[in-house]
Amino acid sequence: MSDRTPQEWREILADIRHPEEVRKAGSRRARRRAKALHHREMRRRSHEWVREQRRRDPIRPTAAAIIVVVVLALGVGTRWVWPGLLGEKQPAAAASRAPATPGREDGEAVAPTASASPGAPSAVPAPQPSPADLGNPDRVAERFARDYLTRNPPQDQTHRTVVERVRPLLAPALAANLSEHTDPAWDKLVSQGGISTVSSVAVTPAGKDLPGDTPLRVWRRAATVVAVDGYTDHTETTVLQVELMTSGGKWHITRILGV
User: Fold this and answer.
1) Helix pair angle (159-166, 137-149), 10° resolution
2) Dmax over Cα atoms in the chain, in whole Å?
3) What is the DSSP string of 161-195?
4) Least enclosed by CB within 10 Å: which of 26, 39, 138, 192?
């Protein structure tokens, strides 16, 4: 409790100097209202001044250490909660897409055009594959890995744009499936502020854990070296295992493992 008497408080309040417009506000009620508004404005200005001083105050070593610990903890938590975000290999059963039956190619959409700065990986839509390319499953797998993993999030905006770029290489059902679901690698690239380009693709027959080749269906393994230009530049290798089926002499991808 304060030791001041009511008279002392009245003297302190009487010494507070208010602006001229407050003292000459008219009636007693008007003066009281003007004083209240004046005090409210002074408190607001004081709060703004304190916030500005805190903003200008450089971060202290203790606070910086706490921030570093929190960031490291989040990284460890993400590794266990969402391993796919960090590019770790998912089990084949969880990563596989639903098989699709090859359909008509005449309903396939043309990759959309978009304006962008020169030199961007996605500045020009991928050219349509030739009949000769679609006639070779290895070429289809190589082309898909190169075009699908070349990404420019600021220009592409969404994962669906990337899918549209490779739609001519996909069976219609698989293209629709990829369009409706995002890719953890896309989300990871966006969080890194990165742009990815493909430097090489090595296509080989799939391993023994997948079915062997038949005249109508084959499996291919596409090991793709991807360079990421972002907050931290790095190079990573992404392995895609794709199932291809032929219809009318043209091969299309019907299933993907590793996405």
Assistant:
1) 160
2) 104
3) HHHHHHGGGB-HHHHHHHHHS--HHHHHHHHTT-E
4) 26
